[in-house]
Amino acid sequence: MESILVLTHADETGSALPRASLEAVTAALELAARLSATLTIGIVAVDPTAAARAVAATGLRLLAVSGEAFAQARYASDAAAVEALCRAANATIVLAPGSSRFTRVAAGAAHRLGGFIDTHITSFGGAETVEATRWFYRQRIEAVLSRSTRPWFLLLDAGTHTAFTAEPATTTVETVSVELPTIRTTVSGFRAPAQDQQTIRPDAKLLFVAGAGWTKKQPDGQIHTEEAAKLILGFLHATSASLGSSKSLVDQGGEGNSVLPFLTHLNQIGQTGATPRHAKGLSTCCHGEEPHVVGWRFIGERRAISLDPNCGWTRGKADVVYIADAFTVIAKLNELLLAKK
pTM of the full predicted structure? Predict the structure, then answer.
């Protein structure tokens, strides 16, 4: 019988589990029920009390490594923590969120334990064996994986499962001792872009996509790139949405054309770009061609603003299409959002 360990870690505050960890707990509960396997939750945190209370309702065995050494993400300490938790749980299947913290160390821990690792897992199947599903080649090929090597580490993509929720409760946590190696890395602080400069937000509920139409000539015969940039950034600031872009708009910078200064290839959505997961998506000034729309496959509700009534979005690729000028619509939206605040 399989023994499943789901790994979690505290967020930046150290007092709660991030959404990705709670999604991993849900996935582990479903997999354990399907396989009739034993399930253990492992926690990495300075103080695991709050994290343990959040998952106490599962009634599962809780293991934790704690102490100041685990306050910050660090390969040496985190790899040792993951190895110790796996050994304490006698795990044959190890699930973990695909966060930067666990992605950094999971492969090393799997090697130390003589196991195997697969990443970007989106779902599980199989009644008697573990069948893990993931995407390849820019989410155009879906593969189902099954392995006999144990322990088998599986890193889960965020947004593929619902986050575990329950009323916090008191519970007992087993502390696992970790033999730390010599720590040569110290965390001196964090440097992150200001909120109004951060445009890629994987956890946002809304994806806002800007197309090349923003930098084309408008009805007055002029290009209004500065106004477009102001409207888009105003909308992002008001809604905390994540910004995406079509390939044509991103490529304009290399062609010497007028561009939006805050866009990079990291914002590109589509066949040669990203395939984000958000509850809703709003496309603006974009034709909705297939190479771009393929990047929307994991967007729940799709809406688009376009002046072209025959664009790709109107051909069954969007739930709602507004035939209107994006400049006018977004300006009005920003006005309403500002008044609401």
Answer: 0.81
Candidate CATH numbers 3.40.50.300, 3.60.20.10, 3.40.50.1220, 1.10.760.10; the one for domain 206-340? 3.40.50.1220
Tell me the pLDDT tens digit for each residue of 80-102. 999 999 999 999 999 999 999 99
In the sheet that 206-210 helps form, which strands lie side by side, from edge to edge?
Answer: 242-245, 206-210, 280-284, 301-306, 320-323
Does 206-340 match 3-175 at the fold level?
A: yes
The position carrying tokens 């034709």 is 287
CB atoms within 10 A of CB 227: 14
Name the DSSP letter for residue 162: P
pLDDT at 190 over 80: no
- Secondary structure, 3-state, 242-303: EEEECHHHHHHHHHCCCCCCCCCHHHEECCCCECCCCCEEEEECCCCCHHHHHHHCCCCEEE
CA–CA dist 308, 339 (Å, integer): 30
If you classify domain 3-175 with CATH, what class do you get? alpha beta
CA atoms within 13 A on the CB side of 59: 1
